[in-house]
Design a protein that fits this description.
The complex is a heterodimer of chains A (276) and B (290). Chain A is mainly α and 276 residues long. In chain A, 74% of the residues lie in helices and 0% in strands. Chain B folds into two domains: 51 residues; 219 residues, MetI-like fold (Orthogonal Bundle), CATH 1.10.3720.10. Classes of the chains: A mainly alpha (276), B mainly alpha (290).
Chain lengths: 276, 290
C-alpha cells in the first residue's frame, strides 16, 4: 500500500500513538499483575471459613452478601429496565412527549456518581422509609443505579430485532403482547443478558453507594432487612483498618476474577446477538 | 412500532401497556426523588451556615466551637485532582484511541478492545489499592512528602478515566467518513498526517464528549481517591500535598456526623450533584451537535 510521503512529523506521530497505546495497556497489565502477585499467596482455606472473625477475616460472608445483593438488585432493575425499554421501542409513538423526558432522565441517572446514590439511598430508603442499614436499602439504591444500563442495552437489543419478525407475528394474528412475549423477547435475549451481566459487574464493584445504605456488618445477613458488606465494601473496610493488607489483596483477586468472568460472559453474549 | 395488529383491545394488552408505561416513568420518578431528597436535606444547611460561608469558606472544622463549615478547600481539591487526571489521562486516552482506530492490526484489536473494557470494569477499590500499594510509595520515594497527594490521586484518576476517553474517542474517530482520509492521502499526505490532521479534527466533537464524560467520572470518583489523596480538609499547597475532594468529605465523615454537620455533608453532596449536572448538560448539548 502506498502510504504517501513519510516525513519526520509522520514518524513522530506514529511513535507517539504507539507509545501511548503501550503505556495504556502496560498500566492495565501492571495493575492486574500487581494484584495477582500480592493477593494469590493469601488465598488460603481459612479465608473461606463460613464465619467471619477478626482473625480469619473470612471473605465468605462477603461473597454470599455480594450474591444476595446482586440477586436482589437484578430482581428489581431487570424487569423495570426491560419493561421501560419495551415501552420506548414497541409502544411509544414518534410524537410521544414522554420519550425524550425518559431518555434525558435515564442519561442523567447514568451520570450521577455512586456516592450521590449512596446519599440518596441513605436519606430515602434507610431513613425516610425506615429500612435501616439493610440489604434491601442497598439493593434498591443499586437497582436505580443500573436501571439506565439495563434500559439502554435492552433498547438496543429490541431495535436489532428485524421488523419482519413483528410483521410475521401480527400477520399470523398474534396480539401485541403475545408478539412481544413469544417473538421479540426471545430474539432479544442475548443482548439483554449482555446488559444484565454488565450490571452484575457494576454491582460487584460498587462501594460508595453501599457503605451508607447496606452498611458494613461483616457477617452473612440473616434476612434482607439485615446489614451486610459486599466484597468491594469488605475490601475497603480491610484497607481502612490497615491490619489485613494481604487478605485485602486476596479479596481484590477474587473481585478481579469475578469482573473478568463477567466481562467475558457479556462479550460472548454480545457476539451471539451480532451473529443472529 | 407504527403499525399494530388489527384486533379488539382486551384488558391484558391494556394492563401490559400500562405496566410498561409505568416502568418507563420510573427513571423520571427516580430523578425527581433524588433531587427532592438531596435538596430538601441539603439546602436548609446552606441557609443556616450562609451560602457564601459554606461555598467560599476556607475552613472546615465541624468539631470546633463554634464549628466552621467551609467547603472551598474541597471544591478546590476536586478541581485540582480532576485537572491533573485530565492532563495525564486525556492525551494518553486520545492517542490510544487513535492507535486502536487507525494504527492497530485487526488481530491485535481483538485483544486490546476487551482489555479496555476490563480496565473499565475494575472496581474503584481495586484501583485504590493499586494506588496505595504502588503510586503513593512511588511518589514518596521519588519526590518526597508523604506520597498521599494531589499528584498520586491525579495519576490514579488519569488511569481510571482512560477507558471512558478511549472508548468514546475511538468510536468518534471511526465514525469519520472514509472519504476524508482517502482525500488526504490523494493529496499526498502520509497515513499519520491524514489521521492526525484530517480525521482527528473531524472527530473533535466526539473526542470532546469523551473528555467531558471523563471529567464527570473523575469528579464523581470516591473510593479510589480517598485511598490515595491524603484527605486533609485544608486548601492544598502544592501537588505533593494531600487534599480532600467533595466526594471524600461525604464518605469520611458521614459515619459519625449528626445534626448540622450531617446536613452540611448532604449539602456537600448537593454541590457535587450540581457540578455533575452541569457536566452532563455540557455533554448532552455536545452530543446533540454531533
Amino acid at each position: 500500500m502506498n502510504r504517501g510521503r513519510r516525513d519526520i512529523i509522520s514518524i513522530i506521530l506514529l511513535q507517539l500513538v504507539r507509545t501511548a497505546a503501550f503505556i495504556t495497556f502496560a498500566a492495565l497489565l501492571f495493575i492486574l499483575g500487581y494484584m495477582v502477585v500480592r493477593g494469590v499467596p493469601h488465598l488460603k482455606a481459612s479465608l473461606f471459613s463460613p464465619v467471619y472473625t477478626s482473625e480469619n477475616v473470612s471473605v465468605l460472608p462477603a461473597v454470599v452478601t455480594t450474591l444476595m445483593t446482586t440477586a436482589l438488585s437484578l430482581l428489581i432493575a431487570v424487569p423495570l429496565g426491560i419493561f421501560a425499554a419495551l415501552y420506548l421501542v414497541e409502544y411509544a409513538k414518534k410524537t410521544n412527549r414522554l420519550v425524550p423526558v425518559v431518555r434525558v432522565t435515564a442519561e442523567t441517572l447514568s451520570g450521577i456518581p455512586s456516592i450521590v446514590y449512596g446519599l440518596f439511598g441513605m436519606l430515602f430508603f434507610v431513613t425516610f422509609l425506615k429500612w435501616g442499614f439493610s440489604l434491601m436499602a442497598g439493593a434498591f439504591t443499586l437497582s436505580i443505579m443500573i436501571l439506565p444500563l439495563i434500559m439502554r442495552t435492552t433498547e438496543e437489543a429490541l431495535q436489532s430485532v428485524p421488523d419482519a419478525y413483528r410483521e410475521g407475528a401480527f400477520g399470523l394474528g398474534a396480539g401485541k403482547l403475545r408478539t412481544i412475549r413469544q417473538v421479540i423477547l426471545p430474539a432479544a435475549v442475548p443482548g439483554i443478558l449482555a446488559g444484565v451481566v454488565l450490571g452484575v459487574g457494576r454491582i460487584a464493584g460498587e462501594t460508595a453507594a453501599l457503605i451508607y445504605t447496606a452498611g458494613t456488618v461483616a457477617q452473612i445477613p440473616r434476612n434482607v432487612f439485615a446489614s451486610g458488606r459486599t466484597l468491594a465494601v469488605h475490601m475497603y473496610a480491610l484497607s481502612s483498618e490497615g491490619l489485613h493488607t494481604g487478605e485485602a489483596y486476596a479479596t481484590a483477586v477474587i473481585l478481579l476474577l469475578m469482573v473478568a468472568g463477567v466481562n467475558l460472559l457479556s462479550a460472548f453474549l454480545a457476539k451471539k446477538i451480532t451473529k443472529n | 412500532m407504527e403499525s399494530g395488529p388489527i384486533k379488539r383491545r382486551n384488558w391484558k394488552e391494556d394492563l401490559a401497556r400500562g405496566a410498561f408505561f409505568a416502568a418507563a416513568a420510573t427513571s423520571i420518578l427516580a430523578v425527581l426523588l433524588i433531587c427532592a431528597f438531596l435538596f430538601a436535606n441539603g439546602i436548609p444547611a446552606m441557609g443556616k451556615i450562609g451560602v457564601f460561608r459554606f461555598l467560599l469558606g476556607t475552613e472546615w472544622a465541624p468539631s470546633d466551637i463554634p464549628p466552621a463549615y467551609g467547603i472551598f478547600p474541597m471544591i478546590l481539591g476536586s478541581l485540582y485532582i480532576t485537572a491533573g487526571a485530565v492532563l495525564l489521562g486525556v492525551p494518553l486516552g486520545i492517542l490510544t484511541a487513535v492507535f486502536l482506530a487507525a494504527f492497530c492490526p485487526e488481530a491485535l484489536h481483538k485483544i486490546l478492545k476487551p482489555a479496555v473494557e476490563l480496565l473499565a470494569g475494575i472496581p474503584s477499590v481495586v484501583y485504590g489499592f493499586f494506588g496505595m500499594g504502588v503510586i503513593v510509595p512511588a511518589v514518596r520515594l521519588l519526590l518526597g512528602g508523604s506520597g498521599s497527594s494531589i499528584l498520586a490521586a491525579s495519576i490514579l484518576l488519569g488511569i481510571m478515566i482512560l477507558p471512558t476517553v478511549v472508548t468514546i474517542s475511538e468510536t468518534a474517530v471511526r465514525a469519520v467518513p472514509g472519504s476524508y482520509y482517502e482525500g488526504a492521502l490523494a493529496l499526498g499526505a502520509s497515513h499519520e498526517r491524514g489521521v492526525f490532521f484530517i480525521v482527528l479534527p473531524a472527530a473533535r466533537s466526539g473526542v470532546l464528549a469523551s473528555v467531558i464524560l471523563g471529567i464527570g467520572r473523575a469528579v464523581g470518583e470516591t473510593m479510589a481517591v480517598i485511598m490515595v489523596a491524603g484527605n486533609q480538609a485544608r486548601a492544598p499547597r502544592g501537588i505533593l500535598r494531600g487534599v480532600r475532594t467533595l466526594t471524600a468529605n461525604i464518605v469520611l465523615e458521614m459515619g459519625y456526623a449528626a445534626e448540622l454537620h450531617r446536613e452540611a455533608l448532604i449539602a456537600t453532596g448537593v454541590v457535587l450533584f450540581i457540578f455533575i449536572m452541569m457536566i452532563n448538560l455540557a455533554f448532552s448539548m455536545l452530543k446533540r451537535r454531533v
